[in-house]
Amino acid sequence: MLYDYIILGAGITGLTLMKKLRQKGYSVLTLESENEAGGLCRTFYVDGHACDIGGHFFQTKFPDVEEFVFSCFPREKMYKIDPRISKISIEGMDIDYPLESNLWQFPVDKQIEYLISVIRNGEALGKPEPKNYEEWIRWKLGDKICDGYLIPYNIKLWGIEPAEMDVDWLYKIPRIEVADVLRYSLERKQDVEKYPCHNRPYYPTSGGYGRVMEAIAKDENPFIKFNTYVNKLRFDENGDSWIINEAFKAKNVITTIPWPVLYEALGRPDVIKEQMTKIKYNKVVVSLFETDDNPTNYHWRYRPEMTQQHHRELYISNFVKDNKNYGVFTETNSERFDPERLTFKGRNLFNYTTPAAYPLPLIGRTKAINEILAYFKSKRLFGIGRWGEHQHHNHDVCMKHALDFVEDLENK
Question: Where would you tag: which of 3, 165, 219, 337 has the fewest CB atoms within 10 A of its CB?
Fold first, then answer.
């Protein structure tokens, strides 16, 4: 059969594309390497605990994304976490996120050290704006916040040196001005409305976030070929179509899987060889723990300390309403993970390594992926979502780009 579209990957982007394309009457097949849909938005249920693959909550500024989600998963099956409680472990204390908005939570002497560092940042001194992440955050926030929090945390998260990272993804973190930092310290409060996202998110009233993915996938599962790894992809000039694994044929292909995987399947074409040197990603180990108590009301906590393997803790018992008591899961860059030397104190019930977690924001990454996408667009191979566009998109942005792609087809 010659499909109108074959979608690679049945994560949130692939599912959104699939549902909307089928609603428009296109013939669609999706190929998925796992045995179920959902990708990084799935949930594993282990010993009474809901272990999400990552910290997923639903909050969006896009009305069409909200309409799409609630058309699949009714709003009454969600509740609002108000407010989300996120902490940063630093200097033996837990400070509210983001750190620069909550320096007033430090003792006065320590607060003064941080404020002086912020006030003396490169931006305030009129120095030119840098072009790599490490220099930029020092320029914006001063050395104290960077050395105690942002530099070690990002080394742990990404697995690369901050000086190798670009600045084009910084829209994802708060952009607090010096005047705001000082105001919050004087007023001893922060403006939570300046969170970049997820300050009052929705979450399912029962089970983990995977319940949302299950609802979206429900009608699509019959059109997904599970346990199917894409190992060969070629364009048939004579048939003017794409052939995948010598078994599936389509007029158009949409990839939502990492480009390094696709690059191998394409036979490592020389035309994008140089660009692919900038297209890399990491993997994260999600570890489920059960503890004897939970003295906090946190939803999650960032751990920049290099003495800790993991970089983030998610207290699922505090937001999964029907979760067993005292459940926590952590996230650890796979390069740092050692199951024999876990640093979170609790009974380790489960460890899962993601096939891919975050596209690395290497300097030159955006230019490279744009050139790759432009080249293959003329051949009707499109990249959508976190992996198709190789950008650190939240899942609502992935859905938005999928919805826009289908809408644009109707407008052509």
Answer: 219
